[in-house]
Amino acid sequence: MVKKRDRLEIIFTILKIIQDHDNSIKPTPLLRYTNISSQSFAEYYKELLDKGFIREIVDKKERKHVSLTDKGFAFLSKYRVILGFIEEFEL
Amino acid sequence: MRSKIPFHGPALEFLGIELIYFIAIVAMSLYIYFKSREIFNLTKHKGVDYFSNIFLFFSLAYLLRLFAIFSMMSHEIIGIDILRLTFGLDFLLMGYFSTVAIIYLILSSMHGAIKKKFEPPESLIHVSAIVFSLFVLMTQSSAVMLMAQVLIILISAVLMLIMSKEKSKTFTINKFSFFLLFGFWALSTIVLMVELPFIAKLLLYAISAAVFTSFFLRVRRRLA
Fold it and tell me: For A91, which of B42, B51, B218 is closest by C-beta distance?
């Protein structure tokens, strides 16, 4: 089982990669940069879509891009605070 | 110890202190709830969910405790015996809110400390607390409520020890401070059942408020 902190770190990594690519990246390179198994990536990807952290945008050439939502940006900016809070209370 | 209703009401001159104490506890608990809820909304982290719910339900339980105290004094203050009118409902809700808070307190302590993932559905938590509070209502005894809640805590502590990942990290000072929240809830229930000297009551309220304040300050430091 993946520990909670690891899970949050993976989420942070995925979101950070999207942000560092001018908030627009295709799913395949995102998977490559994330460096986790494709099965795990699919689970995280779905979770991030469901939670509204990322959204999919299809361009004129029918290519799918991923970008951060406001909630995704909020998570990134509060990541250290979130980790500190979870560690403080051993949650 | 008198456990059957009616409770002993506080002396009228002590009512001001009771009022300040309960309002402070409720205000700090609600602050912790709303601040930690912001983190939960971002992360959907189950541990944070349990943590925030402890304070939501304790705030509701303490609010009802305040109402119970006011009810006891209502005859002297406004000439209407509210206690007689609302006791059943008050007792039922107090049992329910405090039990839900205790269940979340246990889940919050267990989360991350035990080997297996244990995330019971919300409905199960609330149904268990309703059944528990109905049972308590039938007995109409706050002593029974308290003993049953202590039993729940003890069984959970044993389970936590058996299922823990690392025995040395199961009962940390942090986890102990969680259980202090229950400890002071229990003591404030006892205060309603037995007559305590003014100074003892004051001391009890001061320490209890200090425990809540420490949580409040830690949350404020991290999330303000």
Answer: B51
- Give the domain extent around A14: 4-86
Question: Which CA distances in Å does A68 have to A24, A25, A37, A61, B170?
Answer: 8, 10, 22, 21, 38
> Are B223 and A89 inside 8 Å of each other by CB?
no
Q: What is the mean pLDDT of residues B71-93?
A: 75
Q: Is the pLDDT of residue A5 over 60?
A: no
Indicate if the pLDDT at residue B43 is higher than 60.
yes
User: What's the CATH fold of domain B12-223?
Assistant: Rhopdopsin 7-helix transmembrane proteins (1.20.1070)
User: Which chain B residue lies closest to A80 (C-alpha atoms)?
Assistant: B222
Q: Is A22 within a domain?
A: yes
State the CATH number of the domain containing residue A31.
1.10.10.10
Give the pLDDT of residue B5: 46
How many Å lie between the alpha carbon of A59 and the closest alpha carbon of chain B? 28
Helix (H, G, I), strand (E, B) or coil at A65: strand
Residue B220: predicted pLDDT: 94
Give the nearest partner residue to A86 out of B44, B45, B218, using CB atoms: B45
* Mean pLDDT of the residues in chain A: 89
B142-162 as b/e: b if 16+ CB within 10 A: bbbbbebbeebbeebbeebee
Each domain of chain B, given as residue ranges in start order, spans 12-223
pLDDT at A10 over 80: yes
Instruction: Enumerate residues 6+ apart whose C-beta is below 8 A from B29.
Output: B55, B56, B58, B59, B62, B212
- Judge whether A77 lies within some domain: yes
Task: Give pLDDT, residue A25.
Answer: 95
* Domain count across chain A: 1
For A2, list phi and psi in degrees, rounded to 5. -75, 135
Residue B6 has pLDDT above 80, yes or no: no
CA-based nearest distance A50→chain B, Å: 11
